[in-house]
Amino acid sequence: MSVDDYRPTYAVAAVYDLRANDLLRQGITAVLVDLDNTLIAWDNPDGTPEVRAWLDEMTIADISVVVVSNNTYSRVERAVSRFGVDFIARAMKPFAYGINKAIDRYGFDRDEVIMVGDQLMTDIRASHRAGIKSVLVKPLVTSDAWNTKVNRWRERRVLAKLEEKYGRLVYQKGFNGRIILYRLRYSDPNDKKARGWLYTCCCFGKGN
């Protein structure tokens, strides 16, 4: 298993930064979204006005939104019922089971689907296994449910390896579907002791 298996295609500050027009320009017609700490805070099942506004924007643009969560059916149903959103419970992330189930159930084109989540170890890994694009977002709240804390510890180690290889990950405020800025460490090829920093733009518009 490579550290690249946990590398997100894009990174934005929050799911609400994914604007409908930007998604459509990138050919995205379906958004699979994690529930806790991505769509809603894990300790606030009522959500926020931003959630409702974002879901309304997706509906108006005819972009499908499906919650893909590892939580139980009753927990997910209770959380999303007030929003009228379809869902897949017990998704078994980091495996591709839940993502594949959503794609098959709703007849999505895999190239037009994106998975949004706040965890490298589950959401992003599952996206790679399913062969779809992914968006890493910051957790809505800094605290986590007990069963997520172990993943966070592992995630910090994986993120450190990703940043060692690719540079510091920058969460974009907006979403253009193509460019993430990385700060990459480089060496002078003529002097092994020399070190410096190079800012570069990396295109991630195609593939995962």
From TrEMBL:
One Pfam family from the record: Hydrolase_like
Q: Does the keyword Hydrolase apply?
A: yes
Q: List the keywords (alphabetical).
A: Hydrolase
In its UniProt record, a GO molecular function of this protein is:
phosphatidylglycerophosphatase activity
**What InterPro entries does UniProt report for this protein, alphabetically?**
HAD-like_sf (IPR036412), HAD-SF_hydro_IIIA (IPR006549), HAD_sf (IPR023214), PGPP1/Gep4 (IPR010021)
Check the record and name the NCBIfam families matching this protein: HAD-SF-IIIA, YqeG_hyp_ppase
Q: What is this protein's name? A: Hydrolase HAD subfamily IIIA
Give the originating organism.
Streptococcus equi subsp. zooepidemicus
